[in-house]
């Protein structure tokens, strides 16, 4: 089964990437893996404090995941899986792709700010020629109706 790997983060464009991945998976009989990466700088504190912060970050990620997972199951018939990593986002995402041979497409949402599509999209696009799978970049301001029509 081919899986769509989509990144869960706190950006607004993440929503469109999630929708796209779920709709494509539903229409092609594929699956969805959602990855969320906790950056290492979030834990640059005393040991006890960093453990509490790590647990809180995981709880926040799992709560966000449940919202998207419920929508995917109810609306698209897709049951996503969650992968939580700690480290540099691009490195961890590539590691997830390399560790799961069923991942066939990386789906990222592009930001709409004047500063550009976002650091992850910029970094992955720059290296797209050497990625182990195709990269799909979903515009952050694309309407739900337009997403539905192209998936």
User: Strands of the biggest beta sheet: in what spatial order?
Assistant: 3-2-1-4-5
- CA-atom Rg in angstroms: 15 Å
The residue fraction in helices comes out at: 40-55%
Strand tally is 5
Largest sheet: 5 strands, parallel
Mean pLDDT: 91
Q: Structural class of the secondary structure composition? A: alpha/beta
Terminus-to-terminus distance? 18 Å
Low-confidence stretches: none
In sequence order, what are the helices and strands, one letter per element?
EHEHEHEHEH
3D shape: globular
Give structural attributes.
single chain, 151 residues, alpha/beta, five-stranded parallel beta sheet, 5 strands, 47% helix, 21% strand, globular
Account of the protein in words:
This protein is α/β, with parallel strands linked by helices and 151 residues long. The chain is built from 5 helices and 5 strands. The chain has helices at 14-28, 47-76, 89-99, 119-126, 144-150, and strands at residues 3-7, 31-38, 81-86, 103-110, 135-139. It has a 5-stranded parallel beta sheet with strand order 3-2-1-4-5, with helices on both faces. It starts with a strand and ends with a helix.
List the helices and strands and how they pair.
Blueprint (H helix, E strand, L loop, with lengths): L2 E5 L6 H15 L2 E8 L8 H30 L4 E6 L2 H11 L3 E8 L8 H8 L8 E5 L4 H7 L1
Parallel strand pairs: 1-2, 1-4, 2-3, 4-5
């Amino acid at each position: 089964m081919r899986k769509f790997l989509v990144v869960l983060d706190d950006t607004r464009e993440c929503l469109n990437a999630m929708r796209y991945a779920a709709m494509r998976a539903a229409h092609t009989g594929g699956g969805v893996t959602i990855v969320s990466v906790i950056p290492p700088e979030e834990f640059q504190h005393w040991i006890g404090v960093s453990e509490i912060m790590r647990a809180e970050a995981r709880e926040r990620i799992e709560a966000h995941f449940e919202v998207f997972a419920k929508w995917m199951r109810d609306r698209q018939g897709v049951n996503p899986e969650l992968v939580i990593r700690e480290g540099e986002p691009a490195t961890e995402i590539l590691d997830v792709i390399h560790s799961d041979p069923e991942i066939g497409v990386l789906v990222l949402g592009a930001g709409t700010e004047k500063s550009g599509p976002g650091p992850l999209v910029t970094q992955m696009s720059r290296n797209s020629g050497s990625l182990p799978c195709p990269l799909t970049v979903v515009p952050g301001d694309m309407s739900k109706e337009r997403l539905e029509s192209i998936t």
